[in-house]
Write a structure and sequence with these properties.
With about 120 residues, the protein is mainly β. It has a domain of about 80 residues: RNA polymerase II/Efflux pump adaptor protein, barrel-sandwich hybrid domain (OB fold (Dihydrolipoamide Acetyltransferase, E2P), Beta Barrel), CATH 2.40.50.100. It contains one helix and eight strands, in the order E-E-E-E-E-E-E-E-H. The strands form two sheets. Strands 1-8-6-3 form a four-stranded antiparallel sheet, with helices on one face. A four-stranded antiparallel sheet has the order 5-4-2-7, with no helix packed on it. The longest helix has 8 residues.
Length: about 120
């Protein structure tokens, strides 16, 4: 089954980024840890590593594309033995939803649940 490569969240506050440059091309073999792309955020340019082994089947986002939301499908890897027909099947599948960003706990959200002490007679 084809493997989606999604726009990563490179920081807890990152919501979107720019695909600065692909370091692979369609048909290239990749292994976990291989650097496949450079992503720019408002603070830095970071390298993105492959997390799975496979062959780059399709690059879905062009270099230089800005404001790509975290969790957007940017490429598809084909597993060993898969051919381009797996790309058609992958295109029909919705991308996995992005993991929700961690929420900040505020003091207002932490209300006391104890009752006040009873008054003395």
């Amino acid at each position: 089954m084809a493997i989606d490569i999604l726009m990563p969240a490179l920081s807890p506050t990152m919501e979107k980024g720019t695909l600065a440059r692909w370091l692979v091309k369609e048909g290239d073999a990749v292994a976990p840890g291989d650097i496949i792309a450079e992503i720019e955020t408002d603070k830095a340019t970071m390298e993105v590593e492959a997390s799975d082994e496979g062959r780059v089947g399709k690059l879905l986002v062009a270099e230089g594309t800005e404001d790509i939301p975290v969790g957007t499908r940017i490429a598809v890897l084909l597993e060993e033995g898969e051919d381009e027909s797996a790309l058609e099947e992958a295109a029909l599948q919705p991308a996995a939803p992005p993991e929700p960003a961690p929420t900040k706990t505020t003091e207002n959200a932490l209300e006391k649940t104890t009752s006040p002490a009873a008054e003395k007679p």
